[in-house]
Design a protein that fits this description.
The chain has one domain: Nuclear Transport Factor 2, Chain: A, CATH 3.10.450.40. Helix content is 27%, strand content 26%. It is built from two helices and five strands; from the N terminus they run E-E-H-H-E-E-E. It is globular.
Length: 121
């Protein structure tokens, strides 16, 4: 299946006139959901992920809360993926590094997981 035949596509963020297709589209959509704070999209105020609400908590409390927030947001806003595992590593400066393992939900739950890494400071 070529890029133009892919059921998954959208405009490439930050690149006028370009598009992303297939797994790259899903990767971009995951980043968009996770990196968008709730209440920042006027016509869809609930869109996004509230991970920033947990960054100032102590690491033993913050990491599980961030994983829950990311899981909840992706399950709600990106139904095209099936989540595998989410890893969260926090730094001493309260920055988070997320690794999200996923695959397309229409894959029949077979095949390797794709990985999206997001750094949040």
């Amino acid at each position: 299946m070529g890029a133009t035949d892919s059921p998954f596509w959208q405009a490439r963020a930050g690149h006028l006139g370009e598009a992303v297709f297939g797994l790259a589209d899903l990767d971009q959509a995951i980043r968009l959901v996770v990196q968008t704070p709730p209440m920042s999209v006027p016509l869809e105020p609930e869109f996004g992920c509230a991970l920033q609400d947990h960054l100032d908590k102590p690491a033993p409390q913050a990491a599980p809360a961030i994983i829950r927030a990311v899981t909840k947001a992706l399950q709600r806003w990106e139904p095209r993926i099936a989540l595998g595992q989410i890893d969260c590593h926090l730094t001493a400066t309260h920055a988070a590094h997320l690794t999200i393992y996923w695959r397309p939900s229409d894959s029949g739950q077979q095949g390797a997981y794709s990985k999206t890494e997001i750094a949040w400071a």
